[in-house]
């Protein structure tokens, strides 16, 4: 399961705030990957993916 690329705050976080979606993602047996756009988004410029 892959998410992205996009801003963490506008692409990923809003979806995780919906209870059923967050629960479904937590319960999948495959690896989950977020492809972050951390180099171009001002809100995540100083963050890492680790």
Q: What can you see in these coordinates?
A:
- The protein has one domain (2-44).
- It is globular and about 30 Å long.
- The longest helix has 9 residues, at 8-16.
- It has helices at 8-16, 19-26, and strands at residues 2-6, 33-36.
- It has a two-stranded parallel sheet with strand order 1-2.
- By secondary structure, the chain is α+β, with helices and mostly antiparallel strands.
- It contains 2 helices and 2 strands, in the order βααβ.
- The model has no long low-confidence stretch (mean pLDDT 75).
Count of DSSP helices?
2
For the record, the count of structural domains works out to 1
**Average predicted confidence as pLDDT:** 75
Per DSSP E runs of 2 or more residues, the count of β-strands stands at 2
Sheet with most strands? 2 strands, parallel
List keywords for this structure.
alpha+beta, 2 strands, 18% strand
Care to give the gist of this entry?
With 50 residues, this protein is α+β, with helices and mostly antiparallel strands. The chain has 2 helices and 2 strands. The chain has one domain.
Question: Secondary structure elements and their pairing?
Answer:
Blueprint: E1 2-6, H1 8-16, H2 19-26, E2 33-36
Parallel strand pairs: 1-2
């Amino acid at each position: 399961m892959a998410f992205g690329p996009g801003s963490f705050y506008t692409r990923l976080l809003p979806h995780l705030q919906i209870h059923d979606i967050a629960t479904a993602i937590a319960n999948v047996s495959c690896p989950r990957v977020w492809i972050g756009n951390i180099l171009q988004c001002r809100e995540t410029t100083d963050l890492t993916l680790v």
